[in-house]
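$ ./design --mode recover --in tokens.txt
reading tokens...
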């Protein structure tokens, strides 16, 4: 709409006695004159220049991290959400709390439009969760499933612009790394089993309570295993530098009942790794075996129990006829290629565990370093392991009968499983320990009788 400037000036003169109205009218007049006298293109140029100068001299810089990139979730948003969950309970005024079945602990997050501050290497930053209400009631996600969505969420990260390089190069990667550690530590452990050529779609939550604090094995051996696991998880750069796949193999061998399965459970709980329990008898051939190993997640343990008797992986040094396994055509070379061939470098942080009661039956190719890097002999119960069992079952650390038990353990071979069975009886500690002494004395007597018979046969 065009205005007559002279008429507008005359009209303004009537409002001289009213200062506020006069001021407002003056502003309107100046805008009108500016629009009439200055070309629109030139006016736009000046406005753009002023806006540019304002931004140039502004001290703050803001990064916007949206929840979705197209239809896919933004990993930086998810990382920020996990990271800020550790800050929210301390520094925010309002937080949201949730718990899902696949998480160990409660999860805390910022509420809508809440702010929280953080400091990284002396640089102060401010995070804000921005939520914008939307009209659309349904949004299509990357998994092609529709879900009701009432808002668009994003995080705003604000800081002094002179720190842009540090935020981009150091702080954001730091947030991503911490978030990854939080997620890995909070995820409930799952145990996976295979159905022929694939892992079951719904793994079972692994609730085994065994830990290295309660594991009844030799003290020195337990310490060695923990140190070896710690070294492995911190060795990413070592494996890259040496050109090796980031994996480690363990062979657990020894008599039945000496704690092989319990050790696997303790390893999984200590590392917070999922377990993939591989049944070789249900796999048709080497191709399906390779696909199963490739589909394992990072940070996981592949377990093949009783590897000497699940299928006939023939010892190539023995001169025997090839045994027909019927439906199953998995070969020793196929197993070796799956766990240690070129494809083994396609994933990271894999631990491979074979168990056997008869190490001597295994092909030497399975045992060489690089496949089974550490061979752990789980033998009969010694006094240290017994004391751990007494703590677990009887909640005692010392007893007057310990001396006699220590003497007998040095004379007979008994597994932790056998001792555990005796200590499980519904009785007080003294009665249980006396029953154990009787049990050990019976084994000693049987041993002596057996030795006498053998000596008589030799004579």
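writing sequence...
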């Amino acid at each position: 709409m065009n205005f007559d400037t002279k008429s507008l000036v005359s009209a303004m003169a009537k409002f001289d006695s009213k200062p506020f109205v006069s001021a407002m009218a003056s502003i309107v007049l100046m805008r009108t004159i500016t629009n009439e006298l200055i070309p629109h293109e030139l006016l736009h140029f000046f406005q753009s220049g002023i806006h540019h100068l304002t931004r140039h001299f502004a001290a703050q810089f803001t990064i916007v991290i949206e929840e979705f990139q197209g239809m896919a979730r933004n990993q930086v948003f998810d990382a920020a959400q996990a990271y800020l969950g550790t800050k929210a309970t301390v520094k925010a005024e309002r937080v949201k709390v949730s718990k899902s079945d696949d998480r160990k602990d409660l999860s805390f997050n910022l509420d809508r439009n809440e702010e929280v501050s953080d400091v990284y290497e002396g640089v102060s930053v401010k995070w804000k969760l921005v939520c914008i209400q939307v009209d659309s009631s349904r949004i299509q996600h990357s998994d092609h499933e529709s879900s009701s969505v009432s808002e668009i969420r994003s995080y705003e990260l604000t800081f002094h612009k002179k720190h842009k390089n540090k935020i981009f190069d150091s702080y954001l990667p730091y947030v991503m790394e911490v978030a990854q550690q939080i997620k890995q530590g909070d995820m409930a452990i799952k145990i996976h089993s295979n159905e022929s050529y694939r892992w079951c779609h719904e793994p079972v939550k692994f609730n085994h309570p065994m830990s290295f604090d309660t594991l009844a094995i030799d003290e020195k051996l337990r310490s060695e295993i923990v140190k070896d696991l710690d070294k492995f998880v911190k060795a990413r750069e070592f494996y890259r530098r040496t050109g090796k796949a980031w994996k480690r193999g363990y062979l657990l061998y020894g008599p039945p009942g000496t704690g092989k399965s319990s050790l696997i459970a303790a390893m999984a709980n200590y590392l917070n790794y999922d377990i993939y329990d591989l049944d070789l008898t249900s796999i048709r051939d080497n191709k399906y075996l390779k696909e199963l190993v490739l589909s394992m997640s990072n940070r996981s343990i592949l377990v093949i129990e009783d590897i000497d008797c699940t299928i006939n992986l023939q010892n190539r040094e023995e001169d025997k006829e090839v045994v027909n396994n019927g439906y199953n055509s998995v070969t020793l070379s196929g197993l070796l290629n799956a766990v240690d061939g070129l494809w083994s470098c396609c994933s990271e942080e894999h631990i491979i565990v074979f168990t056997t009661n008869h190490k001597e039956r295994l092909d030497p190719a399975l045992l060489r370093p690089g496949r089974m890097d550490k061979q752990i002999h789980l033998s009969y119960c010694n006094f240290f392991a017994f004391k751990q069992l007494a703590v677990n079952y009887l909640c005692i650390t010392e007893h007057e009968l310990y001396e006699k038990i220590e003497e007998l353990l040095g004379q007979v071979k008994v597994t932790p499983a056998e001792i555990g069975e005796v200590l499980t009886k519904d009785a007080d500690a003294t009665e249980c320990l006396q029953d154990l002494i009787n049990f050990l004395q019976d084994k000693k007597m049987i041993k002596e009788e057996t030795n006498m018979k053998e000596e008589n046969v030799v004579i």
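exit 0
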